[in-house]
Amino acid sequence: MTTTDLLCWLEERPIPERWSSRKTWSPPQRENVGRAPVRPRKAASAKARPEVVLSIDINQATAEEWDALPGFGPVLSLRTVKFREAMGGFASVDQLYMVYGLDSATMLNVKGQLVVDADDVEPLCMDSLTFRRLVRHPLFDAEATRDILRAWGRGASSMDAFWDRLNPSAENRERWGPYLHMCEPRMPVHE
């Protein structure tokens, strides 16, 4: 007997009366005796927001500034600021799509009001970078972290040599490039 046969057989069987007559719990109905009539609640009133915000720098904006944008509330605003801190700054406006809860409709609505200065990104110093520090960064998973540290640990004397050893996809190199930097020039390894 196949699964399909079993499902067809179950559909043909009548439902036992003891299962079909089960009552589900529902809240008790209250009577409005001696009280003022209940008015339907109004939709949650939106805060008075400025109609036009000229532009905000996404690497400098506070939660209050994010909250002033349409589609952002206090929770999403705070989440965006925390995500920016975890990233070390945004290298592009498109990285906002990675913020949990920020949908594409909101992004399309506010994208024209957002500016970014990629120089505000806090670089990760390759010389002192640890696995724990890099894997906590939102852009790097454990596999990418392992590959990055292996490529760097093989005596890369420059970032160009590092990128050649790592050989990431063009997309990953573009995403990771603003965050990975060589802080101290390395001396060439003589063998």
Describe this structure in words.
- This protein is mainly alpha-helical.
- The protein contains 9 helices and 4 strands.
- Helix 7 (142-153) crosses helix 8.
- The strands form 2 sheets. It has a two-stranded parallel ribbon. A two-stranded parallel sheet has the order 3-4.
- The protein is flat.
- The longest helix is centred in the middle third of the chain and has 14 residues, at 74-87.
- Among the domains are: 56-120, Orthogonal Bundle (DNA polymerase, domain 1); 124-181.
- Helices cover 38% and strands 4% of the residues.
- The model has no long low-confidence stretch (mean pLDDT 80).
Beta-strand content estimate: under 5%
* Integer average pLDDT: 80
Give the overall shape, derived from the CA principal axes.
flat
Strand order of the largest sheet: 1-2
Helical amount among residues, as a percent range?
25-40%
Secondary-structure element string: HHEHHHEEHHHHE
CATH architecture of the domain at 56-120: Orthogonal Bundle
Number of helices: 9
CATH topology heading of the domain at 56-120 = DNA polymerase, domain 1
Distance between the first and last residues' Cα = 70 Å
Rg calculated over all Cα atoms: 28 Å
Structural class comes to mainly alpha
